[in-house]
C-alpha cells in the first residue's frame, strides 16, 4: 500500500527582546550581503538581485548536497519573506517557507513556517531537520550564537 502524499507543515517560532526593524533587516537579507553566513557555514551564491522575487540562492552543505532556494516574496511593510526549495534533496513537492517578523511591544516574534506535500513518514523525518535549521536561524536572529 502506498502512503498518501498530503499537505504538511513545520513551524518554529521565537519571541525575544529586540527591535523588529533590525531583526527584519537580517531576515530580509536573502543574499547574505549585509549579514554573511556564520563562520564555517556554507558559502552562498546568487543568480540575481537578492531583493527581487525569482532570484535563487545556492549553498552546498557539508555532505555535498546542493540546496537551491528561490525567493518568492519579500514584503518590507509586512515584514514577510517567502522562498521555495528548487529540486529539494528529499521527496517533497510544492515547498514554500515563510518567515514573518512581528513587533510585540518592544519584543520581536519571528516565525518560520514550511509548507509542502509529502508522506507522513517523510514529514516525520524532516521535522527535526527543517525544524532544527529553523531553530538555528531563530537563535541567530535573537543573538544567541557566536555570530550574533
Would you give an account of this structure?
The protein is α+β, with helices and mostly antiparallel strands and 148 residues long. It has a single domain (6-141), classed as 2-Layer Sandwich (Alpha-D-Glucose-1,6-Bisphosphate, Chain A, domain 4), CATH 3.30.530.20. It is 20% helix and 41% strand. The chain has helices at 20-27, 120-141, and strands at residues 6-17, 44-46, 56-60, 66-75, 80-86, 93-103, 107-118. It is globular.
Beta-strand percentage range? 35-45%
Report the top-level CATH class: Alpha Beta
> Helices and strands, in N-to-C order?
EHEEEEEEH
CATH topology: Alpha-D-Glucose-1,6-Bisphosphate, Chain A, domain 4
Detail the poorly predicted runs.
none
- Name the strands of the widest sheet in spatial order: 1-7-6-5-4-3-2
Shape verdict: globular
CATH H level: which superfamily?
A: START domain
Q: What oligomeric state do the depicted chains represent? A: single chain
Structural class: alpha+beta
What is the CA–CA distance across the termini? 48 Å
Whole-angstrom Rg: 15 Å
**Overall helicity:** 10-25%
The number of helical elements comes to 2
What is the tally of beta strands? 7
Biggest sheet layout: 7 strands, antiparallel
Mean of all residue-level pLDDT scores: 89
Describe the secondary structure blueprint for this structure.
Elements: E1 6-17, H1 20-27, E2 44-46, E3 56-60, E4 66-75, E5 80-86, E6 93-103, E7 107-118, H2 120-141
Antiparallel strand pairs: 1-7, 2-3, 3-4, 4-5, 5-6, 6-7
Amino acid at each position: 500500500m502506498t502512503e498518501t502524499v498530503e499537505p504538511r507543515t513545520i513551524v518554529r517560532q521565537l519571541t525575544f527582546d529586540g527591535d523588529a526593524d533590525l531583526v527584519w533587516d537580517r531576515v530580509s537579507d536573502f543574499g547574505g550581503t549585509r549579514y554573511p553566513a556564520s563562520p564555517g557555514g556554507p558559502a552562498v551564491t546568487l543568480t540575481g538581485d537578492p531583493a527581487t522575487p525569482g532570484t535563487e540562492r545556492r549553498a552546498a552543505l557539508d555532505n555535498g548536497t546542493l540546496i537551491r532556494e528561490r525567493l518568492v516574496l519579500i514584503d518590507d511593510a509586512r515584514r514577510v519573506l517567502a522562498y521555495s526549495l528548487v529540486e529539494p534533496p528529499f521527496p517533497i513537492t510544492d515547498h514554500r517557507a515563510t518567515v514573518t517578523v512581528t513587533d510585540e511591544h518592544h519584543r520581536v516574534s519571528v516565525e518560520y513556517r514550511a509548507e509542502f506535500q509529502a508522506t507522513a513518514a517523510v514529514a516525520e523525518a524532516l521535522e527535526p531537520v527543517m525544524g532544527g535549521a529553523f531553530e538555528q536561524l531563530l537563535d541567530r536572529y535573537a543573538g544567541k550564537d557566536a555570530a550574533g
